[in-house]
Amino acid sequence: MNYDVIVIGAGLGGLTAGAKLAKEGKKVLVIEQHDRPGGYATTFKRGEFTLEVGLHEMDGPAPGDMKMKIFKDLGVSGNVRFVPVPDFYHFLNGRVKVTIPHDPALATRVLTQLFPGEAKGIQAYFEQLLKPTGEVFKGEDSSIGEFLDSIIREEDLKLILLGNLGYFHDDPYTLSLAYYTISQGSYYRGGASFIKGGSQQLSDYLTGYIREHGGEVKLNHLVTGIITGDNQVKGVTFQQKNKRGTDLQTAQARMVIANNSMPRVADMLPDTPGENFRKEISRLKTGASLLTVYYGFKRSLKDLGYACYSAAIFDDSVRSQRDILFNNSDDYQRRSFIFTDYSQLDSGLAPEGKSVAAVCCVDYLKNWTGMDRITYLMKKAEVAAIITARLEKMIPGISENIEYMEVGTPYTCSRYTLNPEGAVYGFAQTPDKKSIDISMLPENLWFASAWGKTGGGFSGAIYGGYLCALQILRKKTAQ
User: Fold this and answer.
1) What is the pLDDT of residues 233-286, one digit of tens each?
2) How far apart, in whole angstroms, are the C-alpha atoms of residue 413 and residue 193?
3) Is the pLDDT of residue 477 over 60?
4) Is the bond leading into 61 cis (omega within 30 degrees of zero)?
5) Mean pLDDT score across all residues of the chain
6) Of the listed ranges 135-139, 185-189, 317-321, the one predicted with least confidence
7) Is residue 444 pLDDT above 60, yes or no?
8) Which CATH number fits domain 289-422: 3.30.200, 3.40.720, 3.90.660, 3.30.160?
9) CA 327, 152, 162: angle at the middle one, nearest 5?
């Protein structure tokens, strides 16, 4: 089997790169170990309910957004429906309650009315987020936590502004201000949307696009190694998953794109380049994972008087930014979380009259390892009961309307993506994060995932995949 390009992994970065390259006439093979494409951009069915694994709010797409160009180029815009999200998020911590609009002028007005003494700090915050991209990287980077401390005194205001911190990282004091500025700013510049029917719609579309343009996508197949020779990537070895005794297969290619984690790539490479790459990335911190409780309800939560799409629920024990990191490992009785009610949108996830919702919070694989299966299942049931009891206090009557409930843990994330530590966003975007020197690697090995330059999240993965494809095409043209 000979190809122009082999893509290891069918996450959004790999699918976007594969789709662009297939469109430009390259013979593409995508190999994915899961039974469906998408990585974290997937859904799963439980009875009448479609449960969204990752996306509940994607920035844009909006005019000026690079995704608009990408979606147009790959035909996404006319085949995948994006439903606008009404507000950015609702914030509640027992002391303050506020809804943050996507429009920065409206958000400034809302926050200034709530904290009139912080008008200058609020203005400085939005001026930072709305900077042109080229200005973001001027000067030495710091953390968003340090920046907020320098412009704002009121701790509750800082917490409100960090309501969706879990979209990016687990600690404001170790999250790059430059990275936060670009990522958070995109929500205020272009609003946000949800993919009707769930993110699987986008992943399935890109998979179909690759196949329609002569490419192959192999699901349930695991890449076991990267073949090299003469400082060149020659191909990969892989085998079918979940079938004992399956033979190891080989596919050859001029180029390989790694859409999987960089630590996994290091393990797939031969001894010397693998060890050198492992040392290179060892100085980078792996990002956090997430815990999610999925719900299917017998009725729409609107019928219970609930009216928020996305709500950031902070425990009142979180009094300052410095409490956030500790809270991410605190008891689930006090763990802050995001609650998303998909029935507030035309989400396409549940039949008429019913609804789907989810609770999501930062978590870590270490909290879910070292236990037998029975203990693990008991802990999941305990967490589900705790979270549900907390929701009942917010929305009386919600418990008796639960038709289906399931918990996904960091172990679940690790199992289905093979990401170390169940990391959702790749390497942590810290202020001191250094560029990765890939000069010790074969020059025809490329990267397109959350672990690369553009970082995690749906936009980061899509940008990374498309830019990777463009670099490959330009390189081939120059030759």
Assistant:
1) 999 999 998 776 778 999 999 999 999 999 999 999 998 899 999 999 999 999
2) 24
3) no
4) yes
5) 95
6) 135-139
7) yes
8) 3.90.660
9) 35
Domain ranges of the chain: 2-51+198-284+431-478, 289-422
What pLDDT does 133 receive? 73
- Asked if 126 contacts 148 with a C-beta cutoff of 8 angstroms, the reply is no
pLDDT over threshold 50, residue 478: no
In CATH, the number for domain 2-51+198-284+431-478 is 3.50.50.60
Q: What is the pLDDT of residue 475?
A: 81
Specify burial of residue 196 (Cβ count, 10 A radius: 0-12, 13-18, 19+).
Answer: middle
Structure confidence at residue 459 as a pLDDT band (50, 70, 90): very high
* Residue 129 CA: distances (Å) to CA of 155, 181, 321, 399, 466: 19, 5, 19, 39, 24
Which position has the token pair 């609770």?
359
**pLDDT of res. 479:** 42
In Å, how far from its chain's centre is CA 135? 25
Q: How many CB atoms lie within 10 A of CB 190?
A: 18
Predicted confidence band of residue 63 (pLDDT cuts 50, 70, 90):
confident
Q: Is the pTM of this model over 0.90?
A: yes
